Protein 1
Amino acid sequence: MRRVRQPCAGPPNGTWRSVKNDHGDLWYAILEHVIYEVEDDDDIVRKVFCVYWWSRRQLIEAIEDGEVNNPEVLLSQLADIEDDWWVLAVNHADYILSQEQVITGVTQEEMRSGRLGSFEPDYFLMIEDVPGTDVGDPQRPRDFNLLSRSELRDWLST
């Protein structure tokens, strides 16, 4: 498989989209760049690299599915938060299939209106691998922590 990155193709960097995962669940994402993969059978697949927003509901589901290594910490951080509250995962990004998984554009006005939920500008989600786990396993438990803007700045400076 060959991969060609074309940052100018498709939507501009920073475009917000609603997307669906492989199970059809709704997510919101910020698109960064487009790549084209040429697969072994010479099919060309267009993928978009994006950073995900996680809702409180999705974080609770991750805990229930055993994907969170520190469930007590995350549950305490989510205790008084509504289900439609969304937080940006600053270090969790992936490629999605642009033809199949990108649903529609989302304007910043829609994001701020409250109609889609509450998008948190001052808190961020950090998802970190746990030492000793297999990084090749997509279902491995990881530590999930909500950080304020100042805590994130401190974490990034270390």
Note: Strands lie at 2-6, 15-20, 26-38, 44-55, 85-97, 102-105, 118-129, 142-148.
Protein 2
Amino acid sequence: MKFGLAKNQKDAQIVLIGVLILVLILTFFMIYRWQSAATANMPPPLPVSIPQ
């Protein structure tokens, strides 16, 4: 199964670049969501000496 990529190299490169950009955007979106959720759940910064 070659999916016709060898037939048209230009289209194969365009599809590959598009998939890479999509993966990068999804990765950055997930990291942003995870960081915003983590910062929202964290309490405000406490003083340096925390009584235990």
Note: The helical segments are 9-41.
Protein 3
Amino acid sequence: MKYIQGLKDAHKVTFTGVVMAAVVGGMRRTMERMRIPVPGTISAVTPVPFGKHPNRLRNH
């Protein structure tokens, strides 16, 4: 966690941005190793809390 926080602060980006970049980088590396063509774009759905989001999990 501290490593991710350090990257976030150093590059002035969000925590989620750092995590997503790591995940996508890993996906790309895996695809290249498996000789799978890497597409120009990949769509992803990521849950993001809105302002005033409750501190616990809920279905809205």
Note: The chain is about 50% helix and 0% strand.
Protein 4
Amino acid sequence: MLGLDLFKQPDCRDYLAERIGHWRYFATGDRIPETVEHGRGHVQRLLEFTRQLLAAWGHTPDTPKLTDHQLLVLLSALWLHDIGHSGDRIVFDDIITSADGKTTYSVGEDLDQVRACHSLLSYQIIGEERDFLFADPPTGVDKEKFVESVRLAALFHRRKMNPTEQTSMVPNIVIAHGYTDGEVFNKTLFDSKAFSLVVALLRFIDGSDNQAERAGDPKFYEVLENALKRQIKALEIRAEEPGNKATSDIFNEQIRFKEAQQGHYEKHRLLKHVFFVRGVDDNLAPAYGKEQKSKTFVLEGYAVGNTAYGGYSDEDAARKILHEWVQEYLLVEDYLPFRFRVILIGKKGRQVLNTQLTKDEQKVDEKPPAWWTD
């Protein structure tokens, strides 16, 4: 479950076993309770995906696999990549830069900014708390480069991060380099190819957790939705009260954020669960990914539809799963060793969805679709 048996050597395994006992308490919840879960349950599901993916990869003979050091960084980043949900400020450096000359950026209590910047905040916290988060690593592993490997992987785990160029974030914040740039990977334990593989796996695995368990029990959602409506009403009243005109913009931002959460769970409720297997027959159906020698196998992502959910239909599930999962893959396909196809198990039985994706839908959006709020 924890992925410790995946290591070839005991030193990395023993180190991670000790650290998980420490890190698990950093993944107990979120600062933003209105959104889907980013805590320990999310991490456990990502670890399951990692095992499934590496098992599929392991059945491909004569193919280079992850080294113990790559696996150590990947599993560490899986535990810590969302720690930024508890962050509050960013200190600019040579990677995260300010377009207006400031030295710091405070997100304060703006929960929308916390979510938008949480990968940057994870990078910040991992760097500032390195001595608290990390014990001395296994023999032969440089601690500074190990910590930088984990924090940079966490920084680049979101889909909007460009692998080869600078990325503009919230106003006046720029990620100065892509993760394939020497300014980034030279800080890590790896060369460009090895580090890009770790980041690509983290992004793809993290983007695969789209299932009902992440949204919680349907009854909980009903209670949350009702609470959000009451909170929105209270904020609307406060925004109009005499003496609050100067801060009405803040109230209105909070209203906008909370209104967006009312439909936030829908895409997750469409699926009971998802899992990975190795494609048994690579000629079974078209799969995404470039036809090249580096793509050594086909990974199948199974999405089991939550047909008991009243908003579910095969068409709804297909459109959202297609756009969601396939685009996560397409963004990092150049750095992964497999091609990918999605299979929906729903009212119509087994459907291979990749053949239904139009050319326009295959394009990677710079701006996520309206229903994307994660």
Note: The chain has three domains: 4-206, 217-261, 266-362.
